[in-house]
Design brief:
Number of helices: 4
Organism: Streptomyces tubbatahanensis
Strand order of the largest sheet: 1-2-3-6-7-8-10
InterPro entries: DUF402 (IPR007295), FomD-like_sf (IPR035930), Ntdp-like (IPR050212)
Number of strands: 12
Order of helices and strands: HEEEEHEEEEEEEHHE
Keywords: Hydrolase
Shape: globular
Protein name: DUF402 domain-containing protein
Distance between the termini: 34 Å
Length: 230
């Protein structure tokens, strides 16, 4: 069953391929696209699996320089283009609760040794027949199995504000969302305590393909946004 076929129902069945996309900050076009497979889709949680080898879209500088190799001072001001690269290493399990301004990602090392959680601060996702769309908010949390945590990408968060990609009011809301995420970590509730570390993908699932129209405008959008969310 395709994502478009599944969209006639309220929820995507397990095994449905969909797209997980991010708009470019301060723009309307998409610059990140990751084909994923639905693990679970309920009123409380959307869980998806991004398999190793998945062909993804990510931004790079127009001259082909990877973003992480560009000095921070010019990383957000130089022209960019879309790059198409496979996801290397182990896959990623993404967990997102409706209206929450972050998603929680699980990473493993080879041999399925659990490594860590990663809280990606982002715009609450908009559902459409082909998947979910969001906008990354730069600031993140890395969370270890023992419950310890640390901020990630604070330098990128600050530079994005200096570059005009995030107004001060929005940055304040993102900081508030980050503090709420920290509280969720410290209380160690769902999804951290739900045992997802022991989850494994169905070996029969194929690696979802990246469609040629991966950046098409969403249709039939169903917003899931909390009041006051960034």
């Amino acid at each position: 069953m395709t994502a478009e076929q599944a969209a006639t129902t309220q929820r995507w069945p397990t095994g449905t391929p969909i797209l997980w996309r991010y708009r470019a900050n301060g723009a309307a076009h998409f610059h990140i696209c990751r084909p994923v497979t639905v693990v679970q889709d309920t009123a409380e949680l959307l869980a998806v699996w991004m398999a190793p080898g998945t062909l993804c879209v990510r931004p790079e500088l127009a001259d082909g320089t990877p973003l992480h190799r560009e000095p921070l001072a010019t990383r957000y001001t130089k022209p960019r283009r879309a790059a198409f690269t496979p996801w290397f290493g182990m896959g990623v399990l993404k967990l997102a609760r409706p209206a929450e301004p972050w998603s929680v990602w699980l990473f493993w090392e080879r041999g399925w040794r659990f490594k860590n959680f990663y809280v990606n601060l982002e715009e609450p996702r908009l559902r459409w027949p082909g998947g979910v769309d969001s906008e990354d908010h730069f600031l993140d949390l890395e969370v270890w199995p023992d419950g310890s945590w640390e901020w990630r990408d604070e330098d990128e968060f600050a530079e994005a504000q200096r570059a005009g990609l995030m107004p001060a009011a929005q940055a304040g809301r993102v900081r508030d969302a980050g503090r709420r995420a920290v509280e969720a970590v410290q209380t160690w509730g769902s999804p951290f305590a739900d045992g997802w570390e022991g989850w494994r993908p169905d070996p029969a699932w194929p690696v979802p393909a990246l469609p040629e129209d991966w950046d098409r405008p969403p249709s039939g959008v169903c917003p899931h946004r909390a009041d006051g969310a960034p």
